[in-house]
Amino acid sequence: MQTWSLVSICVLLALVVRWGVSLNSYSGAGKPPMFGDYEAQRHWQEVTYNLPLQEWYFNTTENDLMYWGLDYPPLTAYHSLICAYVAKSINPEWVELHKSRGYESPKHKLFMRATVLVADLILFIPAVVLYCLYLTDGSSRKKVSTLFCFLLYPGLILIDYGHFQYNGVSLGLALWGVLALGLGWDALGSLAFCLALNYKQMELYHALPFFCYLLGKSVQLGLMGRGLFLLVRIASTVLGTFALCWLPFLSDPDHAMQVVRRIFPVARGLFEDKVANTWCSLNVLVKVRYILSSDSQIYLSLACTLLAVLPSCVRLLTKPTFWQFKLALANSSLAFFLFSYQVHEKSILLVALPVCLLLNDLPLVAIWFLHASTFRGLTACAGWFEAMWFTVALSKHDTEDMKHDASVSEGRSAGALRCDLAGLPVLQHLFTVSTGALFRGYLETGSLPQAAFLPPQTGPGLDREMEVLHQRRGHGGSELCDCRSGSSITSA
């Protein structure tokens, strides 16, 4: 009873913070002619309500694709249509064709903000609560503190409730998929993730781990028995979900192909603006966009992304455990962010979701990453919110827990890291190992300069961490490497 009371307080606080952020301005407010992402979402409501479905993704006299043309999968369009019906019943001017462009009013802002909050209440927040309570280890206090940090992650709140988007819908659906797989409901998990993918195509960042986990589980069960039945059931669920989402567009192949072209606009080039991924950084030294053709850029991006994702996916295929699945999600999403084609800066939220799933397991590394992913995009006026979250999040584990996490992070730099985090991009390796070792050194010396030159940890503390790792992963016969000596520890 006490646990649920604390959960209720966390949810209430999350709602208050979300609504408090939403009271401020939004992207593009009062800035014609495009008015920002807020206007994009409103315009999609206008288009889906007033135009026939056959024109939603086509450039026509009534639908100018150069003015916030719809470029997300069908489920986003259906969501916009539902919101448009509600908006029409409140004030028809909000979705009036052409005349509503750039519409701004306090009442309309209240309505648009409320649609984001309702979506979070239906999809994102319940999934977070159930995940933290039923799929994380530890005491009730630890679970509630993880829930607190998860719900109050500043990046998502500032983008959805400040900038204005509906990222909570796709992330919430993806999280329902993770939750279902963690509870053993594989078909339901496939359904939820397919819905996420049909809401935002960027959920492809998470697609390979879902595929490899379910395929590996089917193979493990035996493709001549239960595994085959599971594989057929999952395939039927995926095909049925996609068919239902795309049914109105499948009557005309040209119509379906136009939707695909809008969803994957390869003509825009390798990257846009100043996104912090490999291609934008490399552009300072090598102008890849001018040296290679568009097709070559696509192939290069695809090859680099697959190379970064492949080892963790192979590991997941051979050992389809829920722990490996969570690690593969983090690896895949970061690899896509670093190397894939047409990355947007707000795509970092797709990396943040699987990192949030690791808050309970690797609190130091997770909090550090989430802090960095948010802080890089904050304005000065929002910095206080991030600082408060970071302070509270760090306090969720006492000093011994932090020493534990730092030891685990450093220990994995050799054997355990090679076994369980195989395939992480080089930057992830450096980040995990260096931050863990540096923080351990700071705890021991109280000085960052001294911590930087502290020798590697040895002694019984590392044995304890290896035992914890062994118990967490261990199903008989698994093998872990002793990080100090290079020898093997084989479970009984």
From TrEMBL:
<dbReference type="InterPro" id="IPR004856">
    <property type="entry name" value="Glyco_trans_ALG6/ALG8"/>
</dbReference>
<comment type="function">
    <text>Dolichyl pyrophosphate Man9GlcNAc2 alpha-1,3-glucosyltransferase that operates in the biosynthetic pathway of dolichol-linked oligosaccharides, the glycan precursors employed in protein asparagine (N)-glycosylation. The assembly of dolichol-linked oligosaccharides begins on the cytosolic side of the endoplasmic reticulum membrane and finishes in its lumen. The sequential addition of sugars to dolichol pyrophosphate produces dolichol-linked oligosaccharides containing fourteen sugars, including two GlcNAcs, nine mannoses and three glucoses.</text>
</comment>
<feature type="transmembrane region" description="Helical">
    <location>
        <begin position="229"/>
        <end position="249"/>
    </location>
</feature>
<keyword id="KW-0328">Glycosyltransferase</keyword>
<keyword id="KW-1133">Transmembrane helix</keyword>
<keyword id="KW-0812">Transmembrane</keyword>
<feature type="transmembrane region" description="Helical">
    <location>
        <begin position="176"/>
        <end position="197"/>
    </location>
</feature>
<keyword id="KW-0808">Transferase</keyword>
<dbReference type="Pfam" id="PF03155">
    <property type="entry name" value="Alg6_Alg8"/>
</dbReference>
<keyword id="KW-0472">Membrane</keyword>
<feature type="transmembrane region" description="Helical">
    <location>
        <begin position="146"/>
        <end position="164"/>
    </location>
</feature>
<dbReference type="GO" id="GO:0005789">
    <property type="term" value="C:endoplasmic reticulum membrane"/>
</dbReference>
<comment type="pathway">
    <text>Protein modification; protein glycosylation.</text>
</comment>
<feature type="transmembrane region" description="Helical">
    <location>
        <begin position="298"/>
        <end position="317"/>
    </location>
</feature>
<feature type="transmembrane region" description="Helical">
    <location>
        <begin position="323"/>
        <end position="341"/>
    </location>
</feature>
<keyword id="KW-0732">Signal</keyword>
<feature type="transmembrane region" description="Helical">
    <location>
        <begin position="110"/>
        <end position="134"/>
    </location>
</feature>
<comment type="similarity">
    <text>Belongs to the ALG6/ALG8 glucosyltransferase family.</text>
</comment>
<keyword id="KW-0256">Endoplasmic reticulum</keyword>
<feature type="signal peptide">
    <location>
        <begin position="1"/>
        <end position="22"/>
    </location>
</feature>
<feature type="transmembrane region" description="Helical">
    <location>
        <begin position="348"/>
        <end position="369"/>
    </location>
</feature>
<dbReference type="GO" id="GO:0042281">
    <property type="term" value="F:dolichyl pyrophosphate Man9GlcNAc2 alpha-1,3-glucosyltransferase activity"/>
</dbReference>
<protein>
    <recommendedName>
        <fullName>Alpha-1,3-glucosyltransferase</fullName>
        <ecNumber>2.4.1.-</ecNumber>
    </recommendedName>
</protein>
